[in-house]
Amino acid sequence: MSNKLLDTLGRRNRSIADKTCESCGKQFRPSKEIQRACSRSCGYKIRKLTPYNKGKGKGWINAKGYREIKVNGIQYKEHRYIMEKHLGRKLLKSEDVHHVNGVKTDNRISNLKVLDHGEHTVITNNRPYKKGYKIKLTQKERNRRSDHMKEMRNKALENQ
Ligand SMILES: [Zn+2]
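Above: query sequence and zinc ion SMILES. Below: predicted holo structure tokens.
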């Protein structure tokens, strides 16, 4: 007899037991062992995070840090939307809207500049540290952290 559990159709092919959502208490069927909540919104509550689409005021900040808005049911990146309104035309796929001061949520028209995609990549890649790094680290400290992560990963692999 297999030690698998019955699925909804009565087949014995399920290996993870139903769980109780740690946020709302509802019974749910996890697809991964680590799942602790029945839904995305319950997951946010457990981790005490603000959902991306529930920021203050108009719009929300997406996973890449840009503000997004919905106009007549259509979703836009706000900086691109503002630039299109300013120019009075649609932006081309090859055109990027650059944030002059580097602040991705500062969508004042004075902070926005249309660049060809190639130019934009050159500017953002030549910053003293890559976007996404919130802290300024010396190369030595960064190497130390990188080595530390490698060590942790190797340890985790050994313990498997
Ligand atoms: Zn829940």
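The mean pLDDT is 83.
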